[in-house]
Specification:
The protein has helices at residues 12-22, 43-52, 73-93, 105-111, 129-137, 152-159, 190-200, 205-220; strands at 5-7, 28-32, 59-64, 97-100, 120-122, 141-144, 166-168, 175-176, 183-184. The protein is an alpha/beta fold.
Length: 222
């Protein structure tokens, strides 16, 4: 089985590396952008990079907000500025986005309605049930990764997610404990994540695979 991998970036440097990597295989789908941890990166250079490679990229990301990376309001304002610019690019170019939303879902929910973006992914969703409901109202996709295999909270969230908005991910290079033995996340983990999702949703493995494929195509707009 061949698995297409959305390869997301952090900043200008990693985005350039992602573009080079994507030239090696059509199975690598490049996403480029500025992660909230790297909000101080050169925004204009990223805007130029995205614009010049719009025909080569599959999406924009990883973008978003995260207050754990800033020490004052000015730092968070910079994150918001970068995030809004990335969303504008995605809207203008018709590209999906992968959003980092750790502890900032409410702020992100207040920003998203100002943009018309077909594929919005709240990657590694870790909000509350109420926030999940809001994400569904805004037609966002949400993704679950290896931690769902052993996290009861993640399993409950998955069970309450619209079937047509569920995506699966590795979130590499994060390391996962329990059954994954603190190994760095890799594509080989996905069958376990898929099997877990199928069990929670009372579907066969093949049925869940079709759901994941259909939702991925919908998210990517292909």
């Amino acid at each position: 089985m061949k698995i297409r991998a959305c390869c997301v970036s952090m900043d200008n440097q990693s985005s350039k590396s992602t573009l080079v990597l994507s030239q090696r295989s059509s199975l690598i789908l490049p996403f480029i952008g500025i992660h909230p941890e790297k909000a101080a990166d050169d925004l204009n250079a990223m805007i130029d990079l995205v614009t010049q490679n719009s025909d080569k990229i599959s999406g924009i990301g990883e973008i978003g907000l995260d207050k754990t990376y800033v020490s004052d309001e000015a730092g968070f304002s910079r994150q918001v500025l970068v995030f809004q610019n990335m969303l504008s690019l995605a809207e203008n170019l018709g590209k999906p986005v992968s959003i980092h939303s750790r502890r900032t879902l409410d702020e992100i929910f207040s920003i998203l309605p100002s943009y018309s973006i077909k594929g919005v992914l709240l990657h590694w969703f870790s909000g509350s049930k109420k926030q999940l409901q809001k994400a569904m109202e805004l037609d966002c996709f949400v993704s679950y990764g290896p931690a769902m295999v052993y996290s009861e909270d993640k399993q409950v969230l998955l069970s309450q997610t619209r079937l047509d908005k569920i995506l699966l991910e590795t979130d590499g290079p994060v390391r996962f404990s329990r059954c994954f033995g603190l190994k760095t996340a890799q594509i080989e983990f996905l069958p376990s994540v898929l099997f877990c999702a199928a069990s929670i949703l009372n579907k066969s493995y093949d049925e869940m695979l079709l759901v994941a494929e259909r939702n991925t195509d919908s998210y990517l707009g292909v």
